[in-house]
Design brief:
The protein is of the alpha+beta class. The chain folds into two domains: 4-68, Alpha-Beta Plaits; 82-133, Ribosomal Protein L9, domain 1 (3-Layer(aba) Sandwich), CATH 3.40.5. Helices cover 12% and strands 25% of the residues. It has helices at residues 25-29, 49-56, 130-133, and strands at residues 4-7, 11-15, 64-68, 82-85, 91-94, 97-100, 106-109, 112-115. The chain has a three-stranded antiparallel sheet, covered by helices on one side. The protein is globular, with a radius of gyration of 15 Å.
Length: 138
């Protein structure tokens, strides 16, 4: 999977574009940093590390994550599990999840995982943003 990293020396933001559901929560929440129409689209020096981390934690798809430089590892922090239903959007599960697929393969998901509610995702069980173009209501 393709990833891009942006660092300010203290924290590194990791972006996994294939996971992005284009909710724009990052751009609406921190428009000085996240500018989808510009390249590079992340201007990491436009906010403090704490502000960056707080915004990244709100990413519903997990496409944005971070690690602190100099920690010696890139292990994701384990969060308390919380579930939120987004109006006209995905089911968000915050925390560490162990997902077992129908073929028996397993994957651990950290931070935020967006599960499809509209039934139209091409990346089931995960949301891929199809609910927007299908005008899903629910």
């Amino acid at each position: 999977m393709k990833t891009k990293e942006y660092s300010n020396g203290e924290v590194t933001i990791v972006w996994e574009p294939e996971k992005c559901i284009h909710s724009a929560i990052c751009a609406r929440g921190l428009s000085s940093v996240f500018k989808p129409k510009e390249r590079p689209w992340i201007t990491i020096d436009a906010a403090t590390t704490d502000v960056l981390v707080n915004q990244i934690k709100q990413c519903p798809s997990g496409a944005l994550s971070y690690y602190m430089n100099g920690d010696g590892n890139k292990e994701a922090e384990h969060l308390e599990t919380k579930v939120e239903v987004l109006e006209n959007g995905p089911l968000l599960v915050y925390g560490t999840l162990n997902v077992t697929y129908k073929d028996g393969t397993k994957e651990t998901k950290n931070k935020t995982t967006a599960f499809c509610r509209c039934g139209g995702s091409n990346n089931k069980p995960y949301c891929d943003g199809t609910h927007i173009k299908e005008s899903f209501m629910g």
